[in-house]
């Protein structure tokens, strides 16, 4: 789900949980509304959850995930191919099995994701005909049974819209997607989870515009993970936040996306708000930050930048590489996980002070922090305990199911606690 990057996901986190009479785990909010957790159906709609994506291509072991704050674990990723979907080379089946067994040993659910930025090339073909839809449904069911998963997450980037350059795209993608989903639900029944990651623009209709009525999709999905990140990045005309709370500079925002999905008929109780555990670096043109006033807020995060993207964390590379479309490139991504900002000495251990020439600021309009070094003219925008807490509080005020983070290795305990505290307020 990171635009322009392969994404891998892990799970929804329940905070401050306590077991009910039948072993069901309920949030504090649910417990306050019910004397006991008598049945899954009675409590499920009131769960307050936090999600994380587990990067199966990364170095974090499944056992290292903070399962104490996880309700549903998303294994990311399997990718679509010409016949169905597959586990990419380099991802271990042994690790996949460990992921599932670890989740279950912690009494959590394990869900696997299909798609992602580089893994959605064949989604359009796979749902375009009745025969192909039937085959994909059967393949998903077989995979669920074989590896003991509790559900499937569909991360099609994007129905009716291009995504990566070699994706197959049809005007009828969203309509075909709905037919596929209905067949999938009929086959899996109500006990298996069907979730989706959907971009900030929503689903695209045959006229090329976002669907204004998504009620039928809301009826099929258990959870819709709103991809409210990658709003700003190296591809943007100016520097800016990855995941702004408010709409501040002609971009979209958390608030705007939530309201649009509500208006389109998606129940708030089925929405999960996305919070990125990473940010991006920018090479600014000036060593001085210009201020602008937006709807009563003072903002200094939107600045003129060069076309050069500075190196991100120590693992970021500008070595020549070829993507799944055969396109060669040699540039940095500029990505920084929050924990890497601390481990590499740019940010203090408590996240409050910048080091190595960087000063930490908080942009009041977007409610996001950023670091700026006037000597190098490098800005790094990211999310932390403050901004994650602000977004979580907004999600709760709107009656959302909860929030999820990408990915499980990106935030430290302090940020996860901030999210937990807002969920459990």
From TrEMBL:
Keyword match Transcription regulation: no
UniProt KW keywords: Carbohydrate metabolism, Chitin degradation, Glycosidase, Hydrolase, Polysaccharide degradation, Signal
GO biological process, one term: polysaccharide catabolic process
CC per GO annotation: extracellular region
Lineage top rank: taxon: Eukaryota
Signal sequence segment: 1-20
InterPro entries per UniProt: Chitinase_II/V-like_cat (IPR011583), Chitinase_insertion_sf (IPR029070), GH (IPR017853), Glyco_hydro18_cat (IPR001223), Glyco_hydro_18_chit_AS (IPR001579), Glycosyl_Hydrlase_18 (IPR050314)
Location of the GH18 domain: 45-425
Keyword Repressor: no
Catalyzed reactions: Random endo-hydrolysis of N-acetyl-beta-D-glucosaminide (1->4)-beta-linkages in chitin and chitodextrins
Gene Ontology terms, MF aspect: chitin binding; endochitinase activity
Family: Belongs to the glycosyl hydrolase 18 family.
Name listed for the protein in its UniProt record: BQ5605_C019g08850 protein
Organism: Microbotryum silenes-dioicae
Top-level taxonomy: Eukaryota, Fungi, Dikarya, Basidiomycota, Pucciniomycotina
